[in-house]
Amino acid sequence: MAGAAGREKGFGNMTLAVRIKHSFGDFTLDVDFEAPPGLTVLFGRSGSGKTTLINAVAGLLRPDEGRIAVDGQTLLDSARGVDLPAHRRGLGYVFQEARLFPHMSVRQNLKFSRWFRKGRRADFGQVVEMLGIGDLLDRRPGALSGGERQRVAIGRALLGDPGILLADEPLAALDEARKAEILPYFERLRDEAAVPILYVSHSAAEVARLATTVIALENGRVAGQGPAADILGDPMLTPLGARAVGAMLSARVVAHHDDGLSELDAGGVKLYVPRVAQPVGQTIRLRIAAQEVVLSRARPEGLSALNIVPGTIERIRPGEGPGAIVSLATPAGRILSRITQRSAKALGLAEGMQCHAIIKTVAIAPQDVGGRD
Questions:
Q1: pLDDT higher for 229 or 42?
Q2: Averaged pLDDT, 138-153
Q3: Starting from the edge strand earliest in sequence, which strands make up the sheet with 65-70, in order?
Q4: Residue 198 contacts residue 165 (beta carbons within 8 Å)
Q5: Which pLDDT does position 173 carry in this prediction?
Q6: pTM above 0.90, yes or no
Q7: Are 307 and 324 a contacting pair, CB within 8 Å?
Q8: What is the pLDDT of residue 98?
Q9: C-alpha–C-alpha distance, residues 67 and 73, integer Å
Q10: What domains are there in the chain, each with its CATH number?
């Protein structure tokens, strides 16, 4: 897709700058960050301020003070008295619920947003093709599945020719099957549409699959900012705690086997995962949760686990409880293991020591395998 609207060259390099302070009773949102081009995830627990922040960007909430700008265009500047209304900000918004007009067909819903954006026009056919909704155009929302409705909602937002696309936990209302249906379309948006995306989530799997950049929020503050691998790999930055910590690897699909497994190559290391939909030769993202990785000082023999990766211990980071996160540098990339401090002591683990990561094939969930990298 040549931009969401055949935009001028360079549109995809837009940066969102946000500085906001806003109080609700005893809770204060106080953030200051820049979101570079790509898909930026606002990541945090419920109540951390994610939706308040994205609504302020959208113009649905006026913060007590702050400044918001997209590619230098000021949307809000409380010090100067600038506060563009929502309909003049040129933003697309995908909510948790699709919010389609039930009396309109899919085609009519898609075209509705064009009433509010004159001038540049997104290519209707390109948007329909990218989202795979061509067969749905004559249906009404009541005849669609939850995943289909969300795809139409995404299309409607794109056809409004937005300067930035906002998505507030767009998969939260869907079951796992529908989430699996929608995630590849957000991957296509990230990779093909020249529209910066600000995406709210509290799912580590979604962050690993989609994020170019992560803004980790905790209690209304920015706890960390950076690539998904850095945020998910550091329990001190990950707002959901140690259970959300995991490694992000880049791997190439080598083969699909008759026993239901797919073979991957991650930096020369062979990995087996439950069969993936991606074709042979495609490079994908792979998230491995730290609690699913067992460590062994010597290469183990006689195990059922198919994935055994040698590496060197980079760091051992004790947690607040009995656990510890061990970081291994491996040919496949950094792999993290969540074990008890007692286990680390019993094994005599130390930085610089050779070690092996053992990963059960079935421990890698389908939602942790991304379609593109």
A1: 42
A2: 92
A3: 27-35, 16-24, 65-70, 73-77, 82-83
A4: yes
A5: 84
A6: no
A7: no
A8: 83
A9: 11
A10: 11-244 (3.40.50.300), 248-368 (2.40.50.100)
